[in-house]
């Protein structure tokens, strides 16, 4: 019996040592995967709390834990509203991830914990966004006449077509919203994250900078660190078509280039700017969020004056289009996160779609170069016809071609992580926005709804 007690005591002691040792390791040198998870949680909760006005625990569960890696269910968050800070930790103890709210520039991940540097990376005197009260009809104002009537509204009410965790749907036809629907807890005033739909908006900012003479579509020598380097031969058009030849790992769920860039590096430009060649420019399609961040840095450098660069999205695009809710967030060192982080209401996302439908002209003013939207609709050879020369898709979510989906040939798409999508159909004068939190593993296809909407449109 004494021998058994000694064994039990030894095992108990060993267990305590293992727990203490493991806890110390997690506290002092946590694995990067845990840091990615906490950084992701802090950033998403921060934006949802300070931009969208949502409850932090609801955002943590609904946007981070429910659709993500099971490890994320161990994350706990704390929100300091006075300092505009969010901290996330595994079990509330380990691998802290930080995010900081910076007013008009939304939230940023602060992986190094240097809040001072992150705060000083953007202008502090930029006025906050204010949504004007405008009774005019959309898109000039926020009034929606005769919406949600008839067959279109019935289609939006179909939960199978709408898909799981739908948050907003807006249908625009002949310049007006003709139907819309919102998920529980969301409405027409809720800013929603577009994820990679942001890439197409960022491409429009490149187009605006081209029109303003700040950058050139065929320019080379795009970054200072590429001088006297073979990467100096990369053209702006190569980056826009995701065929720069630069290596980049866009896989999620582990520590890869994209998760490292978004949640472990305060300077998002650093990793893609230092990526090696894997092919000659124009030869290989490589979908890359790093490429979109490089485009942000390039058009910001082209604008020149940094204060003007920080106000450029608002002054050059959002303000003319009336996208008063739009917030394009900035990384912790001062580069717009043009790959992923634009928040806007569904109606403002639809305004952007209507802008592309009008070929980059708004209220009679050309805001994009003639032919730029055509480039957004023109497939690249390297992508097998799926991606375009302007950070947009011809393939519908899931990879269907327009023919396979039974859609008009001129349909093109903005697409984002977890079920964000916008379809633009010039021949039908239609824009369809669908926002939600619908992981790809669920197999949802918004093109099924789009096909039904097209069939239900009144004959012109």
Task: Provide structural commentary.
The chain is α+β, with helices and mostly antiparallel strands and 460 residues long. 36% of the residues lie in helices and 15% in strands. It has 16 helices and 14 strands. It has helices spanning 2-28, 32-50, 56-65, 115-120, 150-156, 159-162, 197-211, 236-240, 257-263, 270-273, 289-303, 306-321, 346-357, 372-376, 402-405, 446-456; strands spanning 75-80, 85-90, 94-101, 107-109, 166-173, 176-182, 192-193, 327-328, 342-344, 361-362, 365-366, 412-416, 420-425, 430-436. It has a 5-stranded antiparallel beta sheet, sandwiched between helices. Strand 5 (166-173) and strand 6 (176-182) form a beta hairpin. The longest helix is centred in the N-terminal third of the chain and has 27 residues, at 2-28.
Please count the beta strands (DSSP E, at least 2 residues each): 14
- What can be said about the biggest beta sheet? 5 strands, antiparallel
Strand content: 5-15%
- Helix percentage range: 25-40%
**What general outline do the C-alpha atoms trace?**
globular
Query: Numbering strands along the chain, what is their spatial order in the largest sheet?
Result: 6-5-14-13-12
What radius of gyration results from the CA coordinates? 23 Å
Structural class: alpha+beta
Order of helices and strands: HHHEEEEHHHEEEHHHHHHEEHEEHHEEEH
Gap between N and C termini: 92 Å
Question: Counting H and I runs of at least 4 residues, what is the number of helices?
Answer: 16
Give the rounded overall mean pLDDT: 92
Low-confidence segments: 10-23
């Amino acid at each position: 019996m004494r021998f058994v007690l000694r064994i039990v005591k030894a095992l108990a002691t060993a267990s305590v040592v293992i727990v203490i040792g493991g806890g110390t390791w997690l506290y002092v040198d946590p694995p990067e995967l845990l840091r990615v998870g906490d950084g992701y949680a802090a950033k998403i909760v921060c934006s949802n709390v300070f931009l969208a006005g949502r409850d932090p625990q609801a955002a943590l569960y609904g946007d981070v834990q429910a659709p993500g890696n099971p490890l994320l269910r161990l994350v706990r968050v704390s929100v300091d509203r006075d300092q505009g800070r969010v901290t996330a930790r595994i079990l509330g103890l380990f691998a802290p991830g930080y995010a900081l709210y910076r007013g008009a520039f939304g939230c940023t991940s602060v992986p190094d914990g240097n809040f001072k540097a992150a705060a000083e990376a953007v202008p502090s005197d930029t006025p906050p966004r204010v949504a004007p009260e405008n009774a005019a009809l959309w898109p000039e104002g926020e009034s929606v006449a005769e919406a949600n009537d008839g067959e279109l509204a019935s289609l939006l009410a179909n939960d199978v077509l709408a898909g799981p965790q739908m948050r907003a749907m807006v249908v625009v036809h002949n310049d007006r919203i003709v139907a819309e629907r919102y998920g529980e807890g969301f409405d027409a005033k809720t800013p929603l994250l577009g994820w990679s739909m942001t890439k197409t908006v960022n491409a429009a900012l490149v187009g605006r900078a081209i029109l303003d003479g700040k950058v050139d579509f065929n320019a080379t020598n795009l970054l200072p660190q590429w001088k006297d380097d073979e990467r100096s031969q990369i053209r702006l058009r190569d980056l826009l078509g995701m065929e720069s030849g630069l290596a980049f790992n866009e896989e999620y769920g582990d520590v890869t280039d994209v998760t490292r860039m978004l949640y472990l590096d305060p300077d998002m430009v650093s990793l893609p700017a230092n990526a090696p060649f894997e092919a000659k420019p124009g030869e290989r399609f490589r979908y890359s969020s790093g490429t979109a961040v490089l485009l942000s840095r390039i058009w910001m450098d082209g604008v020149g004056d940094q204060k003007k660069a920080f106000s450029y999205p608002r002054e050059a695009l959002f303000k003319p289009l009336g996208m008063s809710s739009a917030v394009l967030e900035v990384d912790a060192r001062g580069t717009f996160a043009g790959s992923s982080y634009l928040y806007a209401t569904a109606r403002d996302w639809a305004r952007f779609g209507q802008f592309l439908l009008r070929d980059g002209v708004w209220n009679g003013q050309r805001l994009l170069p003639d032919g730029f939207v055509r480039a957004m609709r023109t497939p690249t050879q390297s992508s097998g016809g799926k991606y375009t020369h302007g950070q947009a898709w011809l393939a519908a979510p899931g990879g269907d071609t327009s023919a396979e989906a039974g859609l008009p040939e001129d349909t093109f798409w903005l697409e984002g992580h977890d079920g964000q999508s916008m379809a633009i159909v010039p021949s039908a004068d239609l824009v369809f926005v669908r926002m939600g939190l619908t992981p790809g593993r669920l197999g949802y296809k918004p093109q099924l709804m789009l096909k039904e909407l097209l069939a239900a449109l009144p004959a012109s």
